[in-house]
Amino acid sequence: MTEEHQHPQGEQPAVDPEVREIHEVPAVEVITTTAVHLMTAAAVKVGLADSPDAKELVDLDEARKLITALAGLITAAAPEISSSHAGPLRDGLRSLQLAFREASPYPDAPGKGPGEKLTGPVN
Description:
The protein is 50% helix and 0% strand. The chain is an all-alpha fold. The radius of gyration is 19 Å and the shape is globular. This is DUF1844 domain-containing protein.
């Protein structure tokens, strides 16, 4: 530990009361928050950013990876989280998969798009 990060013996660093310790966060919240981060990143990479430079941010290779990771997370987590959480996540994933297909100059065959080996073909 560097000197600037050490605290005198017995003293605790000040903690923002708005910050929660990870052990206090329910698993469903960690899962859904992670899914939302993946969705947001994928949306930007597929060109759905709400900014004037959205088209410049498109990176379909990166979007494919993010969408596939999202599909894996949702597929694995769905039985563990309630349908009230899994349903909207599946809807968001499907929208991203369709947006990817639309953004791609050479669309994948049905069932071959990002995450479709986990979710099945998206039409």
